[in-house]
Amino acid sequence: MSEYVRCCFRRNNRLMQQQAHQHSSVGKSAAQKKHLDTEERITLVVDNTTFSINPSLFTAHPNTMLGRMFSSGMDFTHPNERGEYEVADGISHSVFRAILEYYRNGVIRCPPTVSVQELREACDYLLIPFTVDTIRCQNLRGLLHELSNEGAREQFEVFLESLILPLMVASAQRGDRECHVVVLSDDDVVDWDEEYPPQMGEEYCQTVSSTAMYRFFKYIENRDVAKQVLKDRGLKKIRLGIEGYPTYKEKIKKRASGRVEVIYNYLQRPFIHMSWEKEEAKSRHVDFQCVKSKSVTNLAEATADPALELDSAGNPLPQRHFDISNEPDVDAIRPIVAAIAIDGEEGAIGGIANPEEIAGSEEPQ
User: Fold this and answer.
1) pLDDT by residue (tens digit) across 142-178?
2) What distance in Å separates the CA atoms of residue 284 and residue 177, rounded to the nearest whole number?
3) In this structure, are residues 265 and 250 in contact, taking their beta carbons and an 8 Å threshold?
4) SS3 349
5) CA terminus-to-terminus distance, the chain
6) Count of alpha carbons within 13 angstroms of residue 302, beta-carbon side
7) Is 48 within 8 Å of 59 (Cβ atoms)?
8) Positions in the chain short of pLDDT 50
9) Taking the model in full, what pTM does it have?
């Protein structure tokens, strides 16, 4: 055998060994994958629908709720009697099936039968980011609306901390427990006459000049988001809207009676009203002076027959009882009456007539 033939033979042997090693590696990885798919898969129950999933999909995203549930040895998750895990309470199976795509490829495609708001609420519940990078939706209007709500919430948080909160603190330091803020644009000029200020109570309002916040409150959806943010921060009696605010004096009218009437120029500007009063009901309680009333307030007195006699403290006095169940004994009281009678005197009080006189008076004349 020549040297060339031996070299060819050794090369073929090496190629065959490499191919055999590759086949064994592929077979081993397939076996491992099959082992993972069969041994480590768990069953989730969502909306009475079962999903068989490998928990490694969830643990790869530890910042999500499912990633936290099925990590750290599943200390916070317990299966039911059938070994299934009931998760995502209140989420439909179609929404959950779409959300599972986020764990597989990082993108959620909103189904046509699912509203964008429902998908957004499910993402918030499961701590999945709802951004333009993670959501694909045919309904652009619905998608942009939800993105605007999230952006409005973040933007109002900035306005609240930097512009509104200092005004609320100033009101609290004065002893007030509510605040009324009017949002002006940077170009608005407020010039009130010191001698003739507006007579609408505007002197108790606080103003903030911010064109950005003025434009923000132009949309009613943003006002709804801002109201929810204030409510989440513990405030109450929240009102947001648009009202007229006096800026400068236009003219002065003098009436024939000598009374001066000042006319101001009003601009329609957004306003925010909120309160942090805790004892709201007690603040409106009127403590009347205790005055003794002559009306019947005692139940026993009202139902008593005859009426009860009360002492100076208003307590009923003990009553004296008389036994009148039997007829009076005439023979017993006759001596008493006879003792006080005046015999032979006309008109004697308490006297008893003589039977002979009674008989004589009855005879006809």
Assistant:
1) 999 999 999 999 999 999 999 999 999 999 999 999 9
2) 14
3) yes
4) coil
5) 193
6) 6
7) no
8) 4-5, 9, 24-38, 290-291, 324, 342, 344-352, 358, 361-362, 364-365
9) 0.60
